[in-house]
Design goal:
Layout lengths: L1 E5 L4 E5 L23 H6 L6 E4 H8 L3 H13 L4 E3 L2 E4 L3 H11 L4 H7 L2 H14 L3 E8 L4 E9 L2 E8 L6 H21 L4 E8 L6 E3 L2 E5 L3 H6 L11 E2 L2
Parallel strand pairs: 8-9, 9-11
Antiparallel strand pairs: 1-2, 3-5, 4-5, 6-7, 7-8, 9-12, 10-11
Helix pairs in contact: 2-3, 4-6
């Protein structure tokens, strides 16, 4: 059994299954200088790989010249992300997401940021948006019998938002319908294993023009996810809400 504290509502949530909690990354950033958003900064994200990287290698990955690459790397370093030893810059696995979050805070387009992230980082970005809005967050929850995984769960005011993150560059309506069907099944299993819970299945996508619904399950593009969360409780009647009979 695990306990999650919702600081906004002064409430503990008890979870009886194994999970990973994503703490808000911005909480751990000690920004020394302001990281400025430029489109070159977007191209830098793929170059923030774990381990040591030289300016030359960074230039090859990001397709920027050596002078611009060094300027970008130094800017990231001065923002409290990564370290430098001799002529190499060193980054951890979480540094790409940390940089993405700082860029979003500087008004970088969320959808363009999401494109530069891989599926794992995409899940982290979704979770971070929930954390920033005072949701208790569970990431990569594994359920058994049958085995199912929920990418991200946000809990607030006694209602769980169960999110399937689709970092798809292309998809069809039939693929989305199948994703909705599977997420509804995951949500039903979560409800069956979590007494007293109420949950709403949600799909978050990389590309889409606007928020849509399939069988009352919201399909939310990442660039609108923040506003969707803000309006979530006011629009509950329009969404599929699942609770134990």
């Amino acid at each position: 059994m695990f306990i999650i504290w919702d600081s906004l509502n002064k409430t503990y949530f008890i979870i009886t299954m194994s999970y990973l909690v994503l703490k808000p990354i911005s909480r751990y950033l000690t920004t020394k200088t302001q990281l400025k958003f430029t489109h070159n900064m977007l191209s830098a994200l793929p170059g923030l790989i774990p381990g040591g990287i030289s300016v030359k290698d960074f230039s090859a990955i990001t397709q920027t010249n050596d002078s611009e690459s060094k300027k970008i790397l130094e800017s990231i370093l001065q923002s409290g992300i990564g370290s430098k030893i001799n002529d190499k810059y060193y980054f951890d696995e979480s540094d790409k997401l940390k940089t993405a979050i700082l860029l979003i805070e500087k008004a970088a387009p969320i959808d363009e940021i999401a494109i530069a992230l891989d599926w794992k980082d995409f899940e982290g970005l979704t979770a971070e948006i929930l954390e920033s809005k005072n949701f208790a967050v569970i990431k990569n929850l594994i359920m058994t019998k049958p085995r199912m995984e929920i990418d991200v769960i946000g809990i607030r005011l006694g209602i769980a938002m169960l999110i399937d993150c689709k970092h798809w560059k292309r998809y069809s309506s039939s693929a989305l319908s199948e994703a909705v069907r599977k997420q509804v099944e995951r949500t039903k299993q979560y409800i069956a294993k979590t007494p007293g819970s109420i949950a709403v299945p949600v799909i978050v996508t990389l590309y889409q023009d606007k928020i849509d619904f399939i069988d009352r399950v919201p399909i939310v593009p990442i660039f609108q996810f923040s506003s969707f969360v803000d309006e979530f409780y006011g629009n509950l009647e329009e969404m599929k809400t699942i609770e134990k009979d």
